[in-house]
Amino acid sequence: MKSPAVRLPFITCSYAPWCPACQLLQPEWNRLASVAPDLGIKVAKLDCTVEASVAMIFTITSLPTIYHIKDGVFRLVKGKRMSEELKHFVETQSYELIEPETWPYSPGAFYMPTVVRLLDLGMSVTRFHKYMVSKGMPAALSLLFVATAILGSGACFGMLLLFICEYCCPPRPQILSVFGMAGARPEPIVTKDNVSYLHSSLF
């Protein structure tokens, strides 16, 4: 029987090629990566200039930024930049002393993949705008074009949702009555105008 794969913890560094501190860290990070199999961890790097949306998810506010990740728990590693310090940090499990990132801001939160997709979409729009400007289109005209496209897409999406709600999932009369949309109420059979006539006819 094949044993299940073991998920090794990660230690990851977010950096930018132009960052002097990141350039100083690079040799130390490479040395840490060379001993990673012996430590039972995986060492990774995140280029914030390439994966900008992921960097936003990690709420990168300074460079370099180091995270320790184990079992979906993210811990921010501060102050340790030398390979020996990081090696000792992993070997002694000092990460257990660090408070995990709180749930709303944790990169491991369940809604983060959706946020990443939205951020990627925003970055794509930004790249398209820069491309149009580089081709000679005035920046104001490019922004107007992008804004029109976004509003048009939103309107089409809204109409699609309206169609689905109206024709595929019609609301119940009880729900419509809550919003005052149930239509006119039927007239009662007995009213104050004909009650005297009915009384005289019956008795």
TrEMBL record:
Keywords recorded for this protein, A-Z: Disulfide bond, Electron transport, Endoplasmic reticulum, Membrane, Redox-active center, Signal, Transmembrane, Transmembrane helix, Transport
The keyword Cell inner membrane is assigned to this record: no
Keyword Transmembrane listed: yes
Pfam family membership, one: Thioredoxin
Transmembrane segments: 139-164
Compartment(s) where it occurs, according to its Swiss-Prot or TrEMBL record: Endoplasmic reticulum membrane
Membrane topology, record value: Single-pass membrane protein
PROSITE patterns associated with the record: THIOREDOXIN_2
Domain (Thioredoxin) ranges: 1-95
GO molecular function list: disulfide oxidoreductase activity
Gene3D superfamilies: Glutaredoxin (3.40.30.10)
Signal peptide positions (record): none
Top-level taxon of origin: Eukaryota
Gene Ontology, cellular component aspect: endoplasmic reticulum membrane
Name this protein carries in UniProt: Thioredoxin domain-containing protein
